[in-house]
Each structure stands twice: as C-alpha cells, then as structure tokens.
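FAQ: What does the model actually see?

It sees only this:
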Amino acid sequence: MESALVFSTLSDPYLLAAFWTGLGALALTLVMGAQIVYLRMSLRRQERLEKTAITKWRPLLSAALADVPPDTLPALPQRERLPFLRLWLHLHQSVRGDASKGLNDVAYRLGCDATARELLRKGNRAQRLLGVLVTGYLRDATAWEELRKMAAQPDGATSMQALWALIQCDPDKAIREMMPMLLRREDWALSQVAGVLQDAQEPCARYLSDAILQLEPAHLVRALHLAEALRVAMHSGLLAELMRGGDVELTIAALRLANVPVLLDEVRACLSHVDWRARVHAARALGRIGDRSDIERLRAMLGDTQWWVRYRAAQALVDLPFMQPEESRALAGSINDRFAADMLRQVIAEREAG
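And it is asked to produce this:
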C-alpha cells in the first residue's frame, strides 16, 4: 500500500516537478554554501600571506628609505609579489623627492619592473592599475607602448593613471604624443588633468604656446582652460585677438587668462559685451589688472541687470590692488543706487569676515 502511494505520487507530473525542483534548490544551496566557505578560507589565507610578506619586507624597505640599502635581498616569490608591490606603493606615496630613490633601487633589484609590465599586459583591471602606478614611480620607459595603449582606453580612471605614468617616464615625449588626445577627451576632468600635468608644466607651456593657433575652436577653449589651471602665461597678442573675436566661449576663456595691463583696452571693451558671462569675467579681470580709471567703470557695472555681474563688479572693486578698505566703504556711501550700494557693502562685509 505504501509503495503504491509512493509510485502514484512520483507518477504525478506536478509532484514530480516539485520534487526535482526542491532537489535542485537543495543542491544549489549546498554548492553556494561550499563556495562561501571556500572564499572565506581563501580570503583568510590571502590575509595571512599579506601579513607575512609585510613582516618580511617592511624592515628592508624602511632601511632603503633611510638610505641604508641591504647588501643582499631575499628572493621575491610569485605569491608575495602583489603584497610586496602594494606595500612598496604605500611607502612610495608617503615620501617625496630623493627619499624614494632607495625604494626604486630595491624594486629594480627584485625585478619589479618586469612584474609591473606583466601586470600591464595580463592582469585584471585592479592589477593593471597597480602595474601602471609601479611603472610610473619606477619611471620605466620600456613600458611606454603598453602605457600609451592604456591611456587611449575608454576607462577614465585607468587611462588617467596611464597618462600620469607616461609623464613620470618622459614629460616632453608624453606631452608631444598625448596632448592632442588630452584636449579631445571630455571625460578627463580638467582639475584631474592639471594635477597630473604638474610635473610637466614646462613642456606643457611650450606645447600650448606653439600649437594653440592650430587647434580647432572646441579644442582651443579646453586648451585655454588647461593653461589657466596650470597657470601657464599665454601670449598677450593671442588673448587680445580672442577677446576681439566673436566666439563667446573663446572670449571668456581669454578673459580668465588676462593678467597683464597690456590687455586693459580689450578687457574694458568686454565690459559692455552682449553676453553677461563675458561681462562677469571682464569685471574679474579688471579686479586683477585695473587702474584708478577703472573704479568708475566697475561702479557703473553695479547697476547691471544681471546679479552675477553686479556681484563680480563689487568684488573687483574691493580687490583692486590699490583699493584700501576705508576707500571701499566711502565709495559704497557715495552711491545713490540703494541696490548697488548694498551689493558693495555685502562684498566688503564678506572680505572683512574672511
């Protein structure tokens, strides 16, 4: 009777499907549990290995940092290479100047340059990034082609680090080869690019000065913004020409770079520009390079229809190199337009509070 009941149960297609589904779910649960246990054991094993490697290599690297390099070095086994490189990078990023030379000597003696190139070619994303950083700190120009290919990849973070490594290896060559790409890539934030190019300001300034007239307008705006971020002085004749041109974005970019009195006539002409953004930057430029005759010009801008123009004009008045605090307060008291006077008093209060 019992066997007949079991047979009839298993012969029912719905019950049979439920049976096998439950059995499959149980099997998957067991497999996932086994995988979790394996991953936890693997992670603990990796942590033990990393701790052992750090204990072994930290004293040797610290001695190299103290300019007392060890005469002999133990072998660097395959399993210790990644932990060693991470420790090496951590120490490298904590020092400046010649103090890192001892670290590089140790890394070259252990063949870390070859290890880094192998990571660039065959590693996963995290390992490739590690290889890029190691190659950059080692200034290993033999990895140039791999780094150049990585800099052209769409991955913004990895490509930016590859650009940094290229500059560490050879700033002049990197600027020559990579600047056209750098000016095209909108996914590279200029603030990050400027940080990367800090070690290549001189070749960057030469490139921008020589090639800027041949750039397309869209790339020219980005080049001017980059020059501003790097504090590169552009030729005043070029800036004057751009301010007189009809392209608003180029005019604004040129106004942001106007830092010499020879450009005063062009800057003053932009105070009445039809685009309020250009008037904003013209006012700011006058705050840097204006003379006493510009006080009345900026005072007139306090009545502009755009709030930002009025605010920047007030800031420019207070920031004029020769303007004393008591003179600013007296000027605010002499203005009949209540809103203009309030704007100037607000900026004066901000400066005094700051």
